[in-house]
Amino acid sequence: MSESVLQAIVRTARQDPDRPALSDATGIVSYRALANRIEKFAAQLSPYRQRCVVIDMDNSPDWVVADLACMRAGAIVVPLPPFFNPAQRANALAQSGAAAIIGPRMTLTTTPETYANEAAVIPEGSAKITYTSGTTAAPKGVCLNLSGMVGVARSIATLLDHRVADKTACLLPLGVLLENIAGCYASLLAGGCYDVRPQAEIGLGPAAMPDFDRLAHYLAESGATSCILVPELLRGLLMAIWKSGLSLPAMRFMAVGGSKVSATLLDGAAALGLPVYQGYGLSECASVVTLNIPEANEPGSVGKPLPHIRLSVATDGEILVHDPAFCGYLGAAPPEPVYRTGDLGHMDGNGFLFITGRKKNVLILSSGRNISPEWPESELLTRPEILQCLVLGDAAPQLSALIVPTSDALRDADLQGAIDAVNAGLPPYARIAHWHRIAPFTQDAGLLTGTGRPRRDAILNTYRELISDQNTENTDAAIL
Question: What does the angle CA 183 – CA 257 – CA 390 come to, to the nearest 5 degrees?
Fold first, then answer.
């Protein structure tokens, strides 16, 4: 078995004890100090072996210590995403049978008996339970084994080598698996320094809109050599860098994933000299499945499978992952050895994977034409006037869209001009015929996932009357 994260930390602590492992605005935590802190806190967690322990705090070095100490003590980690509402938080505690909660400043609190449920059905081999999209008060708990999570981190650390061995900036909440595994674990396996600060400190706090200027300055001043972004953060960061004239000379690798990334967005990053590479993954596969890297980059693709990953494409185009890290959903039956991702795509002759959309998201127009909405959405999001959007049109004669402008100062005529420009590059059946201006999708409103993807069902439910009116207009237009 390959070296675990804990073994890598101990090895580096012995070979180079003063090497920075974690950092924030107050200073650094060396590998020796990190190893000691993990051991000390793991001793407090010994009563919770094979029981669920919740981590409920903002990004910080303490979060990393708590997570790794749980791993050392054999506890099952349940990270609470910061975007969960009270009902979702309560459900996660009850569903997992949480025995304890680790809160700010490493406070360890035993949960009430109503949560410490001995009857909680946790799949065998589970080391972490991650909650992802969750459009209702009862999101699914994805149970993962330790070897699968380490396999992802090890593959990334091996592929990127020195690019994560210097300093990785933590941008996403650590309660989001992508950051936890591909950011934190990969950095520590590579012997790198993981810079982890509270979200608000780097411009990504609970406010409705991120402070992209602050984010750009943080990345410049931190000297980070790698980071992970979602498309929405990348778009805002590009605008901030373009306006301010800032540069990121230390940056050598910026991974972007979580939802479809437009080629125009990647081109914009390249024009600013930013080393942005697209990847693809799922929580059930312990985050990353495929990744473009400088030595193997195919624009438009999401990269090649990580070295330890086996995947195939079914006859209907669905992407299949063989023997993932997935132990099953909390309280559900064991999974099949082949995980059906629900994503549609194909692989080219060189082994690069291309994603075409979500199987369940495919829109079927009244003409019978099938369209993955991610395609026109990604084109709309290349326009500086458009911050967010959702394309719809199932059973309608034409596509329509919900549009969130980048500024309230923009006129409807400005947005129409942006949509017209996008339509000019799309075939007639994929053009946006009607649209409505709406307020931003936010995590607080339950309309975005932790990685910035739109929660389609929740958005459609929120705007169902508007959409119903739009469908009526579409039908009338077709009749006329």
Answer: 140
Say if residue 293 is in the same domain as residue 199.
yes
Q: Output the CA–CA distances (angstroms, integers) from residue 114 to 35, 76, 186, 369, in the order listed.
A: 34, 18, 36, 51
In contact, 76 and 54? CB cutoff 8 Å: no
- Work out how many domains the chain is built from and give that number: 2
- The residue segments making up the domain with residue 38 are 5-355
Q: Any idea how long the chain is?
A: 480
pLDDT digits (tens, 9 = 90+) for 449-471: 777 788 898 999 999 888 776 54
Nearest to 451 by CA among 238, 239, 182, 253: 182
State the SS3 of the chain: CCCCHHHHHHHHHHHCCCCEEEEECCEEEEHHHHHHHHHHHHHHCHHHCCCEEEECCCCCHHHHHHHHHHHHHCCEEEECCCCCCHHHHHHHHHHHCCCEEEEHHHEEEECCCCCCCCCCCCCCCCCEEEECCCCCCCCCEEEECHHHHHHHHHHHHHHHCHHHHCEEECCCCCCCHHHHHHHHHHHHHCCCEEECCCHHHHCCCCCCCCCHHHHHHHHHHHCCCEEEECHHHHHHHHHHHHHHCCCCCCCCEEEECCCCCCHHHHHHHHHCCCCEEEEEEEHHHCEEEEECECCECCCCCCCEECCCCEEEECCCCEEEEECCCEEEECCCCCCCCEEEEEEEEEECCCCCEEEEEEHHHCEECCCCCEECCHHHHHHHCCCCCEEEEEEECCCCCCEEEEEEECCCCCCHHHHHHHHHHHHCCCCHHHCEEEEEECCCCCCCCCCECCCCCECHHHHHHHCHHHHHHHHHHHHHHHHC
pLDDT tens per residue across span 378-432: 899 989 999 999 999 987 889 999 999 999 999 999 999 999 999 998 888 889 9
CB 45 within 8 A of CB 53: yes
CA distances from 198 to 59, 62, 145 (A): 5, 11, 28
Residue keyed to tokens 């309309």: 447
Angle between helices 231-244 and 263-271 (to 10 degrees): 30
Domain boundary among 355, 380, 404: 355
Measured from the Cβ of residue 392, the count of other Cβ atoms closer than 10 Å reads 20
Under 8 Å between Cβ of 404 and 439: yes
Q: Are residues 202 and 220 in the same domain?
A: yes
Distance between alpha carbon 48 and the CA centroid of its chain, in Å?
29
Last residue of some domain: 335, 355, 375?
355
Phi then psi for residue 8, to 5 deg, are -65, -40
pLDDT, one tens digit per residue, over 235-272 is: 899 999 999 999 999 999 999 987 778 788 899 999 99
